[in-house]
Amino acid sequence: MTIHADRVGKTEPVESVKAKRSLGARLAEGVGGGLMRVFLIIVGLFWLVPTIGLLISSLRPPEEMTASGWWNVFAEPSQLTFESYDKLLQNSDITNSLVNTVLITVPATALVVVIGALAGYAFAWMEFPGRDWWFLGVVGLLVVPVQVALIPIAELFGKLGLFGSIFGVVLFHTGFGLPFAVFLLRNFFAEIPRELLEAARLDGAGELRLFVRVVMPLGAPAIASLAIFQFLWVWNDMLIALVFSDSGSQPITVALQTQVRQFGNNIDVLAPGAFISMVIPLAVFFLFQRQFVSGVMAGAVK
Predict the structure, then answer these.
(1) How many Cα neighbours within 13 Å face the side chain of 100?
(2) Are the C-beta atoms of residues 276 and 252 closer than 8 Å to each other?
(3) Angstrom distance (rounded) from CA 115 to CA 51
(4) pTM metric for this prediction
(5) Rg of the chain in Å (alpha carbons)
(6) DSSP output for 45-90
């Protein structure tokens, strides 16, 4: 019989120790294995149902989409076709808006990551007058809602000639993404051992070289998480783009909304366009989910 030793040297069977555990602890141990994995897989499949339904709908003819639900394709798989995607590629409004989305999202993400990393390093490891007060000001900007700044910045962009341009949309996303970026990366960089930075300085590394060769590689998980957050936010945004873009600079979200408003029955274009707009952020997230999880969990264990 397996024996369990307690603190005072006495022994008792393991079976009796397990019997003394609470019912909640035993249930938690039971569901922590395969049953929990099955449950999470089921939840994940339910979460993907809208995406799968949109994909199937985008591959069905318009008359079939209006006549029956997308699940009927399993009974008649022959109705699947790529005609809707051919029409999408011939729709200049959708294709141009997709290009505009890339031109907005990539610079807005890159600027936030680069500027946020530099500012985070400065707040974490560089000494300058009023550093803590400046950082408190950055943290205070986190609570400023985007809606408050729409009208003042729209007036400012109008005077500067930036209203309705891709550059103006990029600037707005960059400005409102920086407070969170600085806050996140500063807290992450501050956890880097001081001895490591001091050793690099003794070897003759300047601040820029220290930042590029030491801090950036160590901060890669947090930087990757920030990039994913920013990319998803900018790609899926419609409010800012609806206010600051015009017909020549609108992203895919605004273009799809315009198509619904003007041509309510052109579902053969809306379905594939909506799927492309949805699948790209999903692909980015799944491709970099390992870095995302590492960045979120970084600093949780000392």
Answers:
(1) 27
(2) yes
(3) 34
(4) 0.76
(5) 26
(6) HHHHHHHHHHHHHHTS-HHHHHHS-GGGGGT-GGG--SHHHHHHHT
Class of residue 167 by CB neighbours under 10 A (exposed 0-12, middle 13-18, buried 19+): middle
pLDDT digits (tens, 9 = 90+) for 79-114: 788 888 888 888 788 889 999 999 999 999 999 999
C-beta atoms surrounding 278 within 10 Å: 17
Burial class (CB in 10 A: 0-12, 13-18, 19+), 204: exposed
Supply 195's token pair: 């001895």
User: 279 vs 133, 241, 254, 274, 287, CA distance in Å?
Assistant: 42, 20, 17, 9, 12
DSSP assignments along 195-228, one per residue:
HHHHHHHHTT--HHHHIIIIIHHHTHHHHHHHHH
Tokens of 157: 């962009």
The H-assigned helical ranges of the chain are 14-20, 23-31, 34-58, 62-67, 83-89, 92-125, 131-140, 146-160, 166-189, 194-202, 207-210, 216-218, 220-236, 239-244, 252-262, 267-287, 289-297
